[in-house]
Amino acid sequence: MDSTAVEIDGSVMEGGGQILRVSAALSCITGTAIKITKIRAGRSTPGLSCSGGCIDWLSSLMDCFWGSEPQHLSGLQLVSDLCSGSLQGASIGSTDVSLTPGKIRSGSHVADPQTAGSVCLLLQVALPCAVFADAASQLCLKGGTNAEMAPQIDYTLKVFKPIVERFGVNFDCDVKMRGYYPKGGGEVNVTVNPVKELRPVTLTERGNITKIHGRAFVAGVLPFKLAKDMSTAAVRTIRKEIKELYINIQALQEKEKACGNGNGIIIIAESSTGCLFAGSALGKKGVYADKVGIEAAEMLLRNIRHNGCVDEFLQDQLIIFMALAKGTSRIRTGAVTLHTQTAIHIAEQLTQAKFTISKCEDEMSSSVTYIIECHGSGVVNPNL
C-alpha cells in the first residue's frame, strides 16, 4: 500500500455505501490512493461480511449499493477496472480496503454482481470516473434495476440525468432488461462521453409545480390490477393536496424486457424552472397495492412542500459533481440529509472543494430551506 494513501474512516456519519462510493470515485478521478478503514465498525459483525443473509447485508452494510458480497466486490472492482487500479482487502470479513488508482481507461467495462444489487448505485460510482476518461466508455451494469433502498432506474433517467447534464455530464442509458429482488437479472448499457471539465450549477429558484406524471408497473406473474390500484391510490392522495394539476400515472405491464416478478411506482413532479422531484415505492409480499401507491405519493408531496429545488434523494448524488466542477455551485434543498453530509465530508477530504450550508427563512413557505454552496475544485481531465 502506498504510504501517501489518504485514510478514510468508514465508520463516520452515514458509515456505509456512501463513503465507499464517493471515496472510490474521487480516488479514481484525482489519482489519490486511499485506504478505507473501520468498514462496518459499529455493526455486530464488522467488515465485509454477508452474515444474516442478503437482506440484513442490504440494509445494514452498504445501504444496498453492494446488495451482497458479490455486489460489494463488483462495485469496487468496477472502479478499480475503470482506473487501471490495484485493489487490496476487498474480501469477506475485511474491515480495510485500499485502492491505488492508475490512469482512467475508456472502452468497455462490465459489472455483474449476480444478485439484485442496484445497477443505479453501480452507475453512481462509475459515472463520475468515466467522465474523466480519454474517450467514450461503455458500461454494462447488471443486477436490480428497480431495487429497494436505491434509486429506481426510472429515477436515474428522469430526475438524476437531466439535472446532472447541467454540469456538462453527458451519458446515454439503454435499459435492456429490468430486474427485481431477489433474482436481479436486469441489464443496463450506459455510454458515457468524456469532458474537459465540469461547469458549476445554480438551482435556487423552485418556481411552481407545473406537471405531475409517472408509471406504475407490474412484471412477471403479478396481475395488471395491481398497477391500476397503485396508480389510482397515488393520484387520489396527491389530489388532496394539489387540486389544479392533471396527474397522469400510467399503469403498465412489463412484458419482454423484465426478469422475474415485481411491482412498483414512481411519480415525478416538474417545476416551471425545470426542477425535478420524485416519490417512489416498490411492492412487497403482503403489502396492498394501494399502500404502495400512497407511500410514493406521500414521498413526492413531502419533497415538494419545502420549496427546495431538489428532492432528498438527488441532494447527495450531486455533491461529487459540485466538488469537481470549476466555479461555484449553489443548490437550494430541504433538510440536509446524513447521506449529503457524508458525501460533503469525503469530497472535502479528497478534493480542494469547499462547501458551506446556510439556512434560509422562506416567506413563500412555512418550512425551512438550505443553500448548499460549493467552491468546486475545478478538476481538469488530463486524458483529453
TrEMBL record:
Residues passing through the membrane, by range: none
Keyword Translocase part of the UniProt annotation: no
UniProt GO MF annotations: ATP binding; RNA-3'-phosphate cyclase activity
Keywords: ATP-binding, Ligase, Nucleotide-binding
Ranges in a coiled coil: none
EC primary class: ligase
Cross-referenced InterPro entries: RNA3'-term_phos_cycl_insert, RNA3'_phos_cyclase_dom, RNA3'_phos_cyclase_dom_sf, RNA3'_term_phos_cyc, RNA3'_term_phos_cyc_type_1, RNA3'_term_phos_cycl-like_CS, RNA3'P_cycl/enolpyr_Trfase_a/b, RPTC_insert
Gene3D superfamilies, A to Z: RNA 3'-terminal phosphate cyclase domain, RNA 3'-terminal phosphate cyclase, insert domain
Active-site residues per Swiss-Prot or TrEMBL entry: 339
A GO biological-process term: RNA processing
Signal peptide per UniProt: none
Catalytic activity: a 3'-end 3'-phospho-ribonucleotide-RNA + ATP = a 3'-end 2',3'-cyclophospho-ribonucleotide-RNA + AMP + diphosphate
One Pfam family named in its UniProt record: RTC
Domain RNA 3'-terminal phosphate cyclase: 13-49, 69-357
Residues noted as binding ATP in the record, renumbered to the chain: 124, 313-317
Highest taxon of the lineage: Eukaryota
Nucleotide-binding as UniProt keyword: yes
EC number: 6.5.1.4
Ranges of residues in domain RNA 3'-terminal phosphate cyclase insert: 204-304
Family to which the UniProt record says this protein belongs: Belongs to the RNA 3'-terminal cyclase family. Type 1 subfamily.
Function: Catalyzes the conversion of 3'-phosphate to a 2',3'-cyclic phosphodiester at the end of RNA. The mechanism of action of the enzyme occurs in 3 steps: (A) adenylation of the enzyme by ATP; (B) transfer of adenylate to an RNA-N3'P to produce RNA-N3'PP5'A; (C) and attack of the adjacent 2'-hydroxyl on the 3'-phosphorus in the diester linkage to produce the cyclic end product. Likely functions in some aspects of cellular RNA processing. Function plays an important role in regulating axon regeneration by inhibiting central nervous system (CNS) axon regeneration following optic nerve injury.
Record protein name field: RNA 3'-terminal phosphate cyclase
